[in-house]
Amino acid sequence: MKENKLKKYFSVLGVLAVLISLIGLFGCQKAAKNTDCEQSSWNKTTGVVQVKRGRLTPTLSGKSNVSRANPFVIVSPQQGEFIAKIESGVKVKKGTVLGTVGNVELVTPVDATIISVEETGEYPKNYPLFTMQYVGFALNLDAEYFLRELPANSILNGKFQIQDGIGPEDAIAVVMSETSNSEDQGMTYSLQCMISQDVEVKEGQLATVVVTAETKEDVLLLPISVVAGRVKQGSVTLISDGDEKKVQVELGASDGAYIEIISGLNEGDKVSAVPPNLDLRNN
């Protein structure tokens, strides 16, 4: 009697073991199918974006602390003969003509004192001709690449918002300042957003700063999210006749949402909505 009970017990255990094995096998197959399905879904939903022509307002934004304004420079807008009309040490009002390069007048953007001025002569484009000092506060942004993509003496506008304080306020001027780095790099340029003396701020306050340049018309554009890289060179996944390949592109200005494509693609080209560095299929 006892033996019969034991036989029945082990028989039930055997049936349970078989069932558990089958369930495990079915689960593994289902998981494999789900993985295949997810991979298939990824391939189908990657998305495609088309290169289009449009307008772009170059934009630079960042955080900065309020500080006393640094000396700023006015550079030559073109190659040509420079003739100064104002000497160093003179205080000038906003809008004063400081000199000329060829037939182009150089005008001071704010009330300032001229610290130094180059001698009359022939100078290349972008050469610093005047160094000037504004008495007041300013906000500084690293802008080496941003300025490289813009014409010399581009008209720049700035806005700022003091954290937990005033704003948004317009900067009275946006000017270039020279910054000395290492011996190898030499001088680089930053942007200063000059704060009006009528606006009450304190040194050290944190602010959000946005600088915009003149709008560029009829340029090739892509959403910045589809491009791997942000400075000068980048890459995208070009889709043509069902084939995909990674191509290098030369990048221009950006407004934070779109970026200018200078070369490497043509209008109407289709690219993957996922940049090459984030495409899981490449990993």
Automatic annotation (TrEMBL):
TM ranges: none
Gene3D superfamilies per the UniProt record, alphabetical: 2.40.420.20
Any GO molecular function: efflux transmembrane transporter activity
Entry GO terms, CC: efflux pump complex
Domain of life: Bacteria
Name of protein: HlyD family efflux transporter periplasmic adaptor subunit
Organism: Agathobacter rectalis
